Amino acid sequence: MWLINVASGVLTEFDNEDPPLYAIFSHRWGPKEQEQTFKEYRKGLKHDTTGHEKILKLRETALADGQEWVWIDTACIDKRSSAELSEAINSMFTWYRNAAKCYALLSDVHDAHDDAWKSSEWWSRGWTLQELLAPAEVTFLDAHWDHIGTKTYHARAIREITGIPESVLWGRVSYMHWTVAQKLSWAAGRKTKRIEDRAYSLLGLFNINMPLLYGEGHKAFKRLQIEILQKFSDESILAWQPPSRLVNIPHEVLAYSPDEFAGCSDMEPNLLRAASQTELRIEDPPS
């Protein structure tokens, strides 16, 4: 795990199992040429970009909060290495969960004091779901890095935006206690640049690790469902509904995308098996 020292700006690698306390960053990427990659940051390139300015502001904000280290996906993952990229994606939920603080920059919101933050595109992105759920607390910032509020403070409004129960946002009830179908409903309608990332961005939500195969398209989400079926005894994963245009056409057992779970957010708990979230344990075969 690579972290940036907020005082010196030095990028340092730490053991995934024992990093120092750090703050973590959630944001929407700007134009690719404006973001500062791992290689560019280490070589001191592209200092005149908005991506570099973003890292400077992150360091400044974290330093003011007494943080010593920060993590940002643009500069802290060497995407030239497929092994490192795969490890990062499979570890990312854990990294957000273990962060001492999470800052979420809503770069399309220019006034922290009105309700414009509720319409930010941040809420419609695939990766930001785990970045909202995993940390104990998330602090939202506008384009000027002014404080909008926190996940817990705005829990009621966030529930209306995302469909995620307030009890989950407050941390009173773990997201793991909700059914597979309900959790997949929170991902309905969210967008990613790569089709595969609609599945990969959900790995941590189900505590699943699987190989990344960019180029497989929608097969990634079917692979994820198979992994879920092997891990949890939860029949709600079969409660998805096909798009209206296909409702009279026989469909497969597995859903095409998280969008087919959109109608599962309000499922009555008493219609679901009490043990639906039990993780399957594979016993050793008898000797």
TrEMBL record:
Protein's UniProt name: Uncharacterized protein
Domain DUF8212: 219-247
Domain spans labelled Heterokaryon incompatibility: 22-111
Organism (species): Cryoendolithus antarcticus
InterPro entries xref list: DUF8212, HET
Classification lineage: Eukaryota, Fungi, Dikarya, Ascomycota, Pezizomycotina
Origin: domain of life: Eukaryota
Pfam family, one: HET
